[in-house]
Each structure stands twice: as C-alpha cells, then as structure tokens.
Amino acid sequence: MTQNFTIDTQLQHRTIREFAPVKVTPAQLETLLQVARHTSTSMFMQQFTILQITDNQKKAAIRKISTQDYVGGNGELLIFVVDLYRNQQIRKQMQADDGRLHQTDVFIQGVEDTVLAVQNVVNAAESMQLGAVILGSIVNDAQKMIELLGLPQMTFPLLGLQVGQPAQKPQLKPRLPLPFTLFENTYQTAFDIHALAPYDEVVQTYYDLRDTNRRIDSFTKQVASAKMDQRDTKRNQILEILHKQQLCLA
Amino acid sequence: MTQNFTIDTQLQHRTIREFAPVKVTPAQLETLLQVARHTSTSMFMQQFTILQITDNQKKAAIRKISTQDYVGGNGELLIFVVDLYRNQQIRKQMQADDGRLHQTDVFIQGVEDTVLAVQNVVNAAESMQLGAVILGSIVNDAQKMIELLGLPQMTFPLLGLQVGQPAQKPQLKPRLPLPFTLFENTYQTAFDIHALAPYDEVVQTYYDLRDTNRRIDSFTKQVASAKMDQRDTKRNQILEILHKQQLCLA
Questions:
Q1: Per the database record, which ranges form the Nitroreductase domain (chains A, B) (predicted)?
Q2: Alpha-carbon span B161 to A121, nearest angstrom
Q3: What residues contact B188, with CB distance under 8 A and at least 6 apart?
C-alpha cells in the first residue's frame, strides 16, 4: 500500500455528525468552494450549483425534511444542486433549443458533476481536520426542498453537505471486503449470502454513535430490513418530481 | 485559502489522457481499491462494484464504445458499476422481496455511491503523482457495455476510470467563476449570458491537447453547440436500458 497524507486521510474517513460550536473560517470555506470548482466535469458542461445556507429558518426547514437533528446546527450547510438550468438559459439566449437537456443521460452527467464535487470537498475538508456528513436525506421531501430553495425547472437538489469541527470520534465503519465488490473483466453473478457471514460478524462489532452507542445490525440484516422495504415515502415520488422539473423526460 | 498537500493537488487537477508505458504497481492499485472501498456510502447500502479490465479484447471493445484512442491503452482501466444486484440477492436469499430496489431514488443512491468512489480514487491517484481520466463515454453504448461485462439486471455501467503515469502536461482548464455557481439560501434565476463574456474569453485561451493543440470554443458556444444538440445517439436510450435492467421503474 502506498502511503501519503491524502491517502492516510482517505483510509481514515468517518462520517461526522456532531460538530463543535466553532465556525468554519472564511478561508476554509473559500478553499472548499474552490476545490468544488476545480472538480472534473462531464463534457465540460459544469452542471452543478452550490447553495450555501445561512438563513436560520431555512436551516430549520432542511433539518425537518432530513429528520436529522444535527442538520443546520454547528458547521456550514451546503446544498449541492444538479443544475441544467444555467445551460438551458445559455442555449435559449443563443437562440438554440433545449437540445439534449431533457435526456436522462444528461441528467446523469449533471448528477456525476455534482457528486464528484461533493467527494472532492469532503476530501478537502478532512485534509483540514474538518469533518463532514453527506446528506442524502434532503430528498426525503425533494419537492419541499425545491420550493424552499427557489429551484427552477431543470435543477434538482441532490445532496447536502454539512462541514465543521468534529465533536465526536466514531469508529471506522467496516466495509465489504474487496472480493465482493471487485471482479476482473466479467461480473460474477454467483452469490451465496453465507460467504458474507464473517463480514456480518465484523459489522456487528461496530458501535453506532447515532443511536446511543448501541451495536448495529449485520450488513445483510440491514439490506433486508425495513429501511429497504417498500413503504409509503416521498422518496417514491422522485421520478415524478424529476419529470416535473423537466428532467429525465426521455 | 488553506494550503496543504491534498488541497494543492486538488486545485492542480487536470484530466490526463496520455499515459506512459509504465504499469500501475500492485501496491498502487491496491491503494486505489482500498480508497474506493472506504468511501462514504448512502445508508450503508454499498451499492457499487468495480470491474478491473485486464483482457485486451475487452479493452479494445471498450475503446470502440468510448471512441477515445487512449482507452484501454497504457495504465489501468477500471469500470465503476452501479450495483443493486448484490443487495437484491441478499434480500432474495433472506426471503425478502426486492423492496425499494426498483425505485429511482435507490438507483440514484447507487449512482452516488459509485461517483463518490470514483472521485475518491482520482484524488488518491493524483496524490501518488498518477493521472486519471473519468470516462463517461462508456455509456455511448450502454447496452453493449452491459453485454461485454456480463452485467446482470439491477446493475448499470456508469463510469470508466483510466489511471496511469502521465505522459502529458495539460494546461489547467478554466472553470466557471463562483458567482455563477454559488448562491446564498435561494437560487438566483436571473441570468444574462453577457455576464459570461469575460469567462468565455478566458476559456478560449485554453489549448486542448486532445485536438492537435488548437484552442477551444468559448464555454457558451460549447453549451450551444452540436454536442448538446438533439441527435440520434445511443445515449438517448439510457432510460430504456435502465428499465431493461429493472432500475428506475418508479
């Protein structure tokens, strides 16, 4: 294994969900935003936008949508938005039609731009000894997020990111061993759940700081659990909302 | 601005498309894969898989799909696959139904897992003075990629990544200034293309090594150009292929 400062930090990655009452400095924030800006972008289309949330009422509303106590608390809250609106405007003002902007693959390119930037910012934050939590939970009610942030058609609020000074030291969370997630040349469809038993045991030694320090379920139990069961949730409406945003139409 | 080794590298990011005839060492490759493995994952569902391409015929086929000369040449070629198949198998073997796995939001979670890992690996590679190019072009013919890699339903080949010893020194590619991509609290829909004129000028000073060292079009011209025009391309079929893969059904 190669070792250097970047990689050592990456291999020590933990999600931080409790932040000290210390502000992210303007210099730190500027650095994070510049790193986001320098991220790879598909076909040079630059299809994402960041919303910095400073308004306390909006923070509270986002906290309610995400149903996570720590959202909008200490630290800085950024919302990463897939943004095809800007390029639609450019095309419109250059007398071009919308072209491929309503196609699913262009939306996926926008998602890629957005998520690449999120991870780049996470790496930058952790290199500064800041901690971060990526918030997929903002799409618990995507429609409300859209209204809250005044997002026009051709945009979609994909991920939140809360960054701050860590006030907790979680364990390193054990991930699937590579033999399950890496194949050579061809996907291996043969899969026997029993092979996961040793990993399942390791997962159960992990203490989740979120839930009053109790151990967590095995990986397989989590996959088969209620959180992946079909249920009545606004997350079921995402395709509908994407269409309403004029995205993924074909 | 904060400075450290990680951030300095991130701010110097260039896509590398020409690689020296030097192998990525086993230690380097192991490091990249371990970094991928330690990336954040949505709801702990770990929904991505990497295919390492070592077979020369497959490399040639992927090169043909991506229509980029350098694909499958010097360096290491990895294909990052959104993988909901593994969790479907787990649920099936635990006598659970497929639950939410066919929902669009779960597919998007898988995309997020996959893209977060790609960027993490890019950062690790660049920290080792390796170069990388992210290959969105593998979805130029997603159906052929699926057949080539033996990908089952519930998976989708999202991005390729070629990593190797850089054999070129591209210029730093100028990105949109933050005032266009960062808002506070509320999205600003007012947009006047004329405000982009200074940026457009800067973009035109960039020499693209890909096309025999000629300057590139301005950003706005690229957005309004043929590459974003509606046209007959297999990329138009991605939604159909996702459905065939039993993904994004609702």
A1: 12-164
A2: 20
A3: none
Q: Is A207 on the interface with B (CB under 8 A)?
A: no
Domains along chain A with CATH numbers: 5-171+232-244 (3.40.109.10), 178-226 (no CATH)
Contact yes or no for B185/A60 (Cβ under 8 A): no
Q: Do B135 and B109 meet the contact criterion of CB atoms below 8 Å apart?
A: no
Q: Is B35 an 8 Å CB contact of chain A?
A: yes
For the segment B119-168, what is each residue's pLDDT rounded down to a tens digit?
A: 999 999 999 999 999 999 999 999 999 999 999 999 999 999 999 999 99
Distance from CA of B205 to the nearest CA of A (A): 15
Residue A207 has pLDDT above 80, yes or no: no
A66 close contact with B: CB closer than 8 A: no
Cβ B236 vs Cβ A250: under 8 Å: yes
CA trace torsion B174, B175, B180, B184 (10° rounding): -130
Q: What's CA A107's distance to the chain center, in Å?
A: 16
CA–CA separation, A41 and A80 (whole Å)? 14
Model pTM score:
0.97
Among B249, B145, B91, smallest CA distance to A226 is for: B91
Q: So what's the ipTM on this one?
A: 0.97
Rg (CA), chain B: 20
End-to-end CA distance of chain B: 44
Q: What is the DSSP letter of A193?
A: G
Q: Are the beta carbons of A10 and B35 separated by less than 8 Å?
A: yes
How many CB pairs (< 8 A) connect A and B?
A: 344
Cβ proximity of A78 and A161 under 8 Å: yes
Partnered with residue A76 across adjacent β-strands are A163
Residue A113: C-alpha distances to residues A158, A184, B42, B239 (Å): 11, 27, 17, 19
Ramachandran bin of B75, using left for φ above 0, alpha for ψ from -120 to 50, beta for the remaining angles: left
- B19: which DSSP letter? B
> Minimal Cα–Cα distance from B75 to chain A, Å?
15
How far apart, in whole angstroms, are the C-alpha atoms of residue B167 and residue B122?
Answer: 17
Chain B interface test: which of A66, A153, A228 (most B C-beta within 10 Å): A228
A102/A208: higher pLDDT: A102
The pLDDT value given to residue A216: 85
The dihedrals phi and psi of A237, each to the nearest 5 degrees, come to -95, 5
Return d(Cα A134, Cα A177) in angstroms, integer: 23
Q: Identify the residue among A3, A10, A62 best suited for mutation to test binding to B, counting B beta carbons within 10 A and taking the highest.
A: A10
Q: Measured between CB atoms, which of A38, A242, A250 is closest to B236?
A: A250
**Is any Cβ of chain A less than 8 angstroms from the Cβ of B45?**
yes
Three-state SS for A190?
A: coil
* CA atoms within 13 A of residue B218's CA, in its CB half-sphere: 14
